[in-house]
Amino acid sequence: MTRAPEGLLEGDEKRRAVTEMFDAIAPRYDAVNKVMTFGLDLWWRRRTVALLGLPARSLVLDLACGTGDFLRVLERAGQRPVGLDLSEGMLRHARAGSSPLVRGDGAALCFPGGAFDGAVSGFALRNFSDLRAVLAELARVVRPAGRVAVLEVAEPSAPLLRAGYRAWFNGAVPLIGRLLSDPGAYRYLPRSVAYLPAPADLVAMLEAAGFGEVRRHLLTGGAVQVLTGTRA
User: What domain range is 176 assigned to?
Assistant: First the structure.
């Protein structure tokens, strides 16, 4: 397990704090997301499912499913999703359609090996307390030749876009959170990016976990990224 950035929690302490935070913000989570992303979060998820590239009726795990946005996109794409999250509050407020929901830990998944044709995850990598263990578990439960597509924040490389991104993410997002939800949670959100490994390290971690053909796709000027891979 990599060491947490200075001033941020790690290990079991992080796991408990993050779970409690998501329990607290679950009732307003969808509404704040829509405001915070100008409604782009749904398009990002649709694009992620397209990049997953699995045929219809594939069994797909949504890791850290939250309130079910990815589950609904997957269902509309003709897939058979299963949602898993550690936050009981998120699962309680999930709008998951016909998708099964499971409370569980991404670092110790309660599914047999090779159970899924693929997996997705949205904006969750930086919230796990042991990312290497989570990626190893993903590799275990996704069948050989199965696919993963992981959606996460990124930072634009163009100077002007990067400056605007930082102003929004570090200034406007905490303000929106304070007005509409829990102030502490949305102060944590920009700071949590420090947990995220550098792009090359993320690719290397996916490869080390057992995924090949790992690719990094940038969306919306580089404000978000999708990492895809095929189970070796």
Answer: 11-231
22-to-15, 27, 150, 166, 185 alpha-carbon distances in Å: 11, 9, 19, 23, 8
Q: For the chain, how many structural domains are there in total?
A: 1
For residue 174, the domain's CATH number is 3.40.50.150
Mean pLDDT of the chain: 94
pLDDT tens by residue, 89-133: 999 999 988 999 999 999 999 999 999 999 999 999 999 999 999
| Residue 79 CB-half CA count within 13 A | 28
Note whether residue 2 is domain-resident: no
Q: What share of the chain is helix, strand, coil (3-state, %, to 5)?
A: 50, 20, 30
Q: At which residue do the structure tokens 């309680």 appear?
A: 92
Question: Is 184 a domain residue?
Answer: yes
* DSSP H or E stretch at residue 201: helix 199-209
Distance CA 130, CA 138 (A): 13
